[in-house]
Amino acid sequence: MTVAEKSARKFAKETPLGKKRRARRINRILAEVYPNAKCELDFETPFQLLIATVLSAQTTDIRVNATTPGLFAAFPDAHALAVANLGEVEELIRSTGFYRAKARNIVKLANDLVEDYDGEVPQTMEELVKLAGVGRKTANVVLGNAFDTPGITVDTHMGRLARRFGWTKETDPVKAEEDIAALFPTKDLTLLSHRVIFHGRRICHSRKPACGACPLMTLCPSFGIGELDPDKARAMFKYEMAPLA
What we know:
By secondary structure, this protein is mainly α. The chain is built from 13 helices and no strands.
C-alpha cells in the first residue's frame, strides 16, 4: 500500500464532526504558517479590485499587478473606463491573455456600473454577479477584501486543496463553496480563502505537491501524492517560502 493510499484510508471513516474539527485545525495551522496571507492583487479602491479580479482569469496575480498601474492611470474609475477606446484598453491589458474578451468585459462592466450604480461598485452578491464578467468567485473577492463581507473564493487553488483535504468532492465551484463554508464560522471565510490559496501557490502545487515538507501532512487525506523526501520537497517551495539561494 502506498503512502497516499494509507493517508486516504486514515480518514475514510471520518465523521462529519471529525471533518469539521480537522478542517478548523488546518485553518489554525495555515494561520501560523501564513500570518500575512491576503489578497495578492494590488488595489486602492473597490473598482480597482473588481477590474483586477476580472483580469486575473487564466493568468497570475503577478502579471495582473504589472498591468493594472498603466490601466488605472489611463482609466482611474468606472466613468473613464466606460467611454474608453476598446483598442487602447486591449493594448494596455494584452499581457494578461484573452485580452480582447477581457477588454470587452471590463468596458461593459464599467458601463454597467455607470448606468446602474453611478459608477460605484455594489456591495451585494446579487448585484455583483449581474455585472459583465463577474461570477461568484470575483464577487466574493470584492466583498471580502473591499467591503469586509466574508466569503469563500473558490479559485483553482481553493478547489484543488479543498478536494485534497477532503472538505468537498465537488468540482462545481458553487457546490464546493457551500461544502467548505459549512465547516467554518462565517467570520473566518475570507482569511481562510487567502490562507488556502497561499498554500496552494507555495507548497501544495497542482502537478506535484511538496508533501514531504508540508505542515499539514498529518491532517491531509492526500498526503503522499507528491514529493515525500523532505529536502526535495522544501526545494519546491515558491514565493517567500522558497529556500534562499
